Amino acid sequence: MTPELDPVIHAQARLRVVVTLNTLPEGDRIAFPGLKDLLGMTAGNLSVHLSKLEEAGYVEITKTHRGRTPVTYVALTRRGRVAFEDYTAAIRGLLDTSVPPASGVT
């Protein structure tokens, strides 16, 4: 039986978001513009994907102010970290079950 891949994470843009956020220590967060720049995404595109991840409970969005300037922070939740761990395990499972080509076949 092949492992199921989480469709929320599996979309390429969302996978890039989760991989990037997973590099932060648990409890840390990144400002939206910094994440946007790291990923090379437009604000609109990133917002759409963050909304889907937030609906799944994988990211937490915090809107606050730094002085008078509004700031949006993004963090991977514990649930998001577990989902990413499960996703990477499923990918490894898929790779481990792949059959190597027969010898002599190119």
Automatic annotation (TrEMBL):
CDD domains in the cross-refs: HTH_ARSR
Pfam family, one: HTH_34
Domain Winged helix DNA-binding: 14-93
Keywords tagged on the record: DNA-binding
Domain of life from the UniProt record: Bacteria
UniProt-recorded Gene Ontology molecular function terms: DNA binding
Cited Gene3D superfamilies: Winged helix-like DNA-binding domain superfamily/Winged helix DNA-binding domain (1.10.10.10)
PANTHER family registered for this protein in UniProt: BSL7504 PROTEIN
Protein name: DNA-binding MarR family transcriptional regulator
Source species: Planomonospora venezuelensis
